[in-house]
Amino acid sequence: EVQLQASGGGLVQPGGSLRLSCAASGFTFSNYAMTWVRQAPGKDIEWVSGINDGGDRTRYAASVKGRFSISRDNAKNTLYLQMNSLRPEDTAVYYCTQSRNRGQGTLVTVSS
Fold first, then answer.
1. How many helical (H) and strand (E) elements, i.e. helices and strands, does the chain have?
2. In this predicted structure, what is the pLDDT of residue 103?
3. Cβ(35)–Cβ(49) below 8 Å
4. Who's near 78: CB < 8 A, 6+ residues apart?
5. What is the mean pLDDT of residues 100-112?
6. Is residue 48 within 8 Å of residue 81, measured between CB atoms?
7. Read out DSSP for 95-112?
């Protein structure tokens, strides 16, 4: 059974930083591309960033490019999202995904 557990969310002031983690299990992590998506209150799910299986190719949504950085540690079966220069519009529940699987999310609230 695929399990994806995101963590690291919280309340942060505008301009602050957070690092999200996603612990993966139930599949061979190093064989799969991974993504981060988010869902703001009352809005549709938005794709945020993706990384290939080897970790050497990344992509970002225009709204986060230059502020967020995705990475992975295949030895630890863990996906990361470093978020800098956070804005109120980044407030959302963040999820990691593998293929069509989406785990439990972590809430990020950006507010003063």
1. 0, 11
2. 87
3. yes
4. 21, 22, 23, 24, 72
5. 95
6. yes
7. EEEETTEE-B-EEEEE--
63-84 pLDDT per residue, tens: 999 999 999 999 999 999 999 9
Q: Which residues of 52-89 are buried (b: 16+ CB within 10 A; e: fewer)?
A: eeebeeeebeeebeeebbbebeeeebbbbbebeebeee
Two tokens, residue 53 = 């299986």
Q: Are 39 and 46 in contact (CB under 8 A)?
A: yes
**Residue 24: burial class (beta carbons within 10 Å; 0-12, 13-18, 19+):** buried
Q: What is the DSSP letter of 88?
A: G
Q: Which residue has the tokens 């959302």?
A: 92
Q: 77, 60 in Cβ contact below 8 A? A: no
